[in-house]
Design goal:
Blueprint: E1 6-9, E2 12-15, E3 21-26, E4 31-37, H1 41-60, H2 63-79, H3 81-92, H4 96-120, E5 124-127, E6 130-136, E7 139-143, H5 149-163, E8 166-170, H6 176-188, E9 196-198, H7 203-212, E10 218-222, H8 225-237, E11 241-245, E12 251-254, H9 260-272, E13 284-288, H10 292-306, H11 316-331, E14 335-338, E15 354-359, H12 364-367, E16 374-380, H13 383-390, E17 399-402, H14 406-413, E18 422-423, E19 441-442, H15 447-452, E20 455-461
Helix pairs in contact: 1-7, 2-4, 2-5, 2-6, 3-4, 3-6, 4-5, 9-10
Bound molecules: nicotinamide-adenine-dinucleotide.
Nicotinamide-adenine-dinucleotide binds at residues 143-147, 170-173, 203-204, 207-208, 211, 222-224, 227, 230-231, 245-248, 279, 369, 371, 397, 436, 440-441.
């Protein structure tokens, strides 16, 4: 596949400071498809310097003009949609149709939403005898994971640019080609030199250098809770703004009045999409004891129907990790009703859609984030117990509630310690704030709430 052998810094592709490279592997056949440079501290320095130089002019650019550039970026993403989908499929492994609809489609929606928000957001308000200005925070260090490679980039870069910030991006090592395509799109959209910069590389080298860089004013990180804690500590020590979008272990709560077949079917589809590599996936299905056996049968049937249609996991490490969790579930006494730890194909990092019944809330598979196509069905006796189970992990990113009417589901959802809940299969809303309670993170992405993360206020009294 096409790859750049340099970094996108100051509006051009520049030679990398070091000589090491990262191999990009197609997880469907385990073949190396490209190499990208492994950035080091010098690359990060150069990128932060470029972002710093570009900041005053971009911050002073009228919001309508920033909006026009973001709209142009959206248009380039639309024009290159097929190429984006093919690239995500090659390096992440998602089936092409899913890549087209979700991996290319959602970032286009989000970029469009920020083109509109940049133009309409109230960057100035009157409060009594004061005028309050919302001003950009400065240089943003954005660190993204591989599971929604373009969405996570756009969900940071578009609001940062809308706010008037400049950005240095360090994308995940597994999916750098999508990030390089994004840099090309930024260039084509006529976004001024230095406003967006890309450094590919390892998390422990380039990522760490970016998170700790004194020239970075805000670190926005999406990834594992373990790395998020480290980044939060580094940012805290420097009194630097930080946004953390971390892991999840979300509950799909099916109340007894719900349409069981629909709730189970949508719940299984929610986890199997992207092969379970979705931080907000509803990996714990909570079912009332009176409907438990029926739900288990429906879930097993729905998972079996997925069969071969899900893509592989992203890499060998995830493949071993997810299969290890499945083995652990069996060892701890959960009952496999679909899938299992055996690899369904000889080549590629595939795992069968897997469903466990008789899962108890304290089991490892009900507590830890597996990040694979694995659903745990947990029994509850009454609503209070369902709530205790739903809230009984360190995470609080997302969830779902199903009931005969929305009001009943809403009453339950309001008691959940989690940042986003879908009521009776509610649709994705690119303007709704997304982010975690508890150890799922700090801060929000998307919509006006996501934009405000990149702003700081100044009040003038009259
Ligand atoms: P990860 O934390 O290993 O890596 C994420 C990013 O951080 C990568 O770019 C990586 O190179 C970088 N990184 C790694 N170590 C670093 C360090 N010491 N300093 C600075 N940067 C470093 O996570 P992952 O395995 O790539 O992604 C999976 C995780 O991401 C899952 O736990 C998932 O739940 C989470 N996630 C959360 C959200 C959300 O919005 N809450 C969205 C997607 C993924």
């Amino acid at each position: 596949m096409k790859a750049h052998d340099g970094m996108y810094i100051g509006g051009e592709w520049r030679a990398a400071a070091g000589t090491d490279t990262i191999a990009v592997v197609d997880p469907a056949d385990e073949q190396v498809i490209a190499h990208v440079p492994a950035g080091i501290a010098e690359d990060v320095d150069a990128a932060v310097f470029a972002a710093h130089e570009a900041f005053p002019a971009w911050a002073a650019t009228p919001p309508a003009e920033r909006a026009a550039r973001i709209a142009a970026l959206r248009d380039v993403l639309v024009a290159r949609k097929d190429e984006i989908a093919e690239t995500v499929t090659a390096e992440l492994g998602a089936p092409l149709q899913f890549s087209q609809m979700v991996h290319a489609g959602v970032p286009i929606l989000v970029a469009g939403s920020y083109a509109e928000l940049a133009a309409s957001y109230a960057f100035e308000e009157k409060v009594g005898n004061s005028t309050v200005y919302a001003e950009p925070v400065g240089v943003v260090g954005a660190i993204t994971p591989w599971n929604y490679p373009l969405h996570q980039i756009v969900a940071k870069v578009a609001p940062a640019l809308a706010a008037g910030c400049t950005v240095v991006l360090k994308p995940a090592e597994d999916t750098p080609l999508t990030a390089q395509l994004f840099a090309e799109a930024v260039h084509e959209a006529g976004i001024p030199a230095g406003v967006f910069n890309l450094v590919t590389g390892l998390g422990t080298v380039a990522g760490q250098a970016l998170a700790a860089h004194p020239g970075v004013d805000l670190v926005s990180f999406t990834g594992s809770t373990a790395v998020g804690k480290q980044i939060g500590a580094t940012a805290g020590a420097a009194v630097k703004r930080v946004a953390l979008e971390l892991g999840g272990k979300s509950a799909n709560v099916i109340l007894p009045s719900a349409d069981l077949a629909k709730a189970v079917g949508v719940g299984i589809a929610n986890v199997m999409g992207n092969s379970g590599q979705t931080c907000s996936a509803w990996t714990r299905m909570l079912v009332h004891t009176s409907q438990y056996d029926e739900a288990v049968a429906l879930a097993a049937e729905a998972a079996a129907k997925y069969g071969d249609r899900i893509g592989p996991l992203v890499n060998a490490k995830q493949h071993a990790r997810v299969r290890g969790y499945i083995e652990k579930g069996v060892a701890e006494g959960a009952r496999l009703v679909a899938g299992g730890p055996e690899a369904p194909r000889e080549q590629g990092y595939f795992v069968s859609p897997t469903v466990f019944a008789d899962v108890t809330p304290e089991m490892t598979i009900a507590q830890e984030e597996i990040f694979g196509p694995v659903v745990s069905i947990i029994r509850y006796e009454d609503e209070d117990e369902a709530l205790r189970i739903a809230n009984g992990t360190v995470y609080g990113l997302a969830g779902a509630v199903w009931a005969a009417d929305d009001a009943e589901a809403v009453a339950f959802a309001r008691r959940m310690d989690t940042g986003q809940v879908d009521i009776n299969g509610g649709r994705f809303n690119p303007l709704a704030p997304f982010g975690g309670y508890k150890q799922s993170g700090v801060g929000r992405e998307l919509g006006a709430h996501g934009l405000s993360e990149y702003l700081q206020t100044k009040s003038l009294q009259f």
